[in-house]
Description:
- The complex is a heterodimer.
- Chain A is an all-beta fold.
- In chain A, 0% of the residues lie in helices and 53% in strands.
- In chain A, the strands form two sheets. In chain A, strands 2, 4, 5, 6, 9, 10 and 11 form a seven-stranded mixed β-sheet that branches.
- In chain A, strand 4 (34-39) and strand 5 form a beta hairpin.
- Chain A starts with a strand and ends with a strand.
- In chain B, the strands form two sheets. In chain B, strands 2-10-9-4-5-6 form a six-stranded mixed β-sheet, with no helix packed on it.
- Chain A binds chain B through residues 35, 44-47, 50, 59-62, 95, 100-111, and chain B through 32, 34, 36, 43-46, 49-50, 53, 55, 87, 89, 91-92, 94-102.
Amino acid sequence: EVQLVESGRNLVQPGGSLRLSCVASGFVFSNFWMSWVRQVPGKGLEWLASIDERGIEKYYLDSVKGRFTISRDNAGSSVFLHMAGLKVDDTSVYYCVREVGGGAFGGWGQGILVTVSS
Amino acid sequence: EVVMTQSPATLSVSPGERVTLSCRASQTIKSKLAWYQQRPGQAPRLLIYGASTRATGVPIRFSGSGSGTEFTLTISSLQSEDVAVYYCQHYHNWPPWTFGQGTKVEIK
Lengths: 118, 108
């Protein structure tokens, strides 16, 4: 069974930084692209960043480019999202997701709520 | 950027009835479309990919169709556990990968 478990601090001040971690199990992690998707509570889904199997190709939503960095550790079956220059508008539930079939998101973590507030 | 538009915003349906949800892409995405179900308080779950292929474990009452710019998700007979928000998402000409705004399905 595919399992993705996110962790990280839940509260950060505006302008601060934060690293989210996601540990995967139940599949061969190094064979899959991984991504992060966020959702403001009660609102829709927004793709943020993706990374290829080797950690070489990385793609970002324009609004987070330069502030967010995706990385992975295949030996530890983990993917990370480092977020800097956080804004109140970055307050969301952040999901770690596994890509399948060339770009569908088949496998979601339970999500972690990150609140940016003073 | 491909913009995904879903309709209607909300559907209120009686148990056992057929449900049809629509998703339109602003440009052709061939069959690079996925559907997700998000039940209240839960993470999204992949239902359909490749416009019409059911993901593992998805009940056969869920079916997807369409190609190009017009897509449909059909629930053949609504069950109480199908109450959720349903999202479409394209994965053609990325980045970015984009989602529709969602359709909320309620029980009448």
